[in-house]
Each structure stands twice: as C-alpha cells, then as structure tokens.
Amino acid sequence: MITTGEQAPDFELPDHDGNPVRLSALRGRPVVLYFYPKADTPGCTTQACGIRDHRADYEAAGVTVLGVSPDSVEAIRKFHDGQDLNFTLLADSDHAVAEQYGTWGEKSMYGKTYMGVHRSTFIIDADGTVVDVIPKASPKTHDEQVLKALRETVAA
Fold it and tell me: What is the pTM of this model?
C-alpha cells in the first residue's frame, strides 16, 4: 500500500459521466482519494453520503474528493445520481489503480475468500505527495477521520 511521504501514482480513469479524470491534472489543490468496494451497498452508501453531507467542510479545506471503485461507469453513474452525490466517482473496472495503490487484495466474508477493494483513503497535498493514509476506513467515521487529517496535514 502507498504510504505517507510517497508521491501519489498518477492515473486516468473515467468519471461517473464517462469523462476522463487524470490525478496529475488536479495538482495545485489537495485531493482526498478514497477507494470503496462496491457502489450502492450499505457501507459504501453511508461513506459516500457522509462526504456529500459534509460538502461545506471539504470545500472549506479546499480539497477535491475522488471516490474510486471497481464498478463500471454505468454502476457509478446510477450510484452518483441516485444518492445525489456532489463529488466525483471514478470507475476502476479492471482494478488497475486499486492495485497500484495497494488497496486490491484478498478479502473474506462468511467463510469465503475473494479478491476486492479494501476500503482505504489517501490524502494527497497540492504537490501530489501522500500526506496521510487511512488503511481501514470505517464508513461511519470516515469523514471525522478525513477532516481531522486535513486540518492536521493540509491546513498546517
């Protein structure tokens, strides 16, 4: 997994409207890059709606929020529109970016193992350096953790 102090690997992925988004094009502004397992599932909805509902806090911190999942553009568009989200979702359908960031790996549920995204968040400063990592983000406390980290790292 990418760690604090490393340069955030650049990537380009389609957003919920199918438009390409390149991380390096956002330089000059901090980015909250979060990986979530699957659109329209309970935990991912809680996490995304938390970001939506804290929009003013994220705007006050001057950050761009990007949510990345291994879903298709169609799936993230439905999720984005259905939850009235006010930030960008990206489709990493071949999970290449999740692998690049170290968030793709073996998971287990109900005794079965499978490959999937580990819910993780990377806070990237305006120069493209990772300044904080939340390796096991909780949907319920995600915003609290991220906003605290933003106050301590990006605003400092």
Answer: 0.96
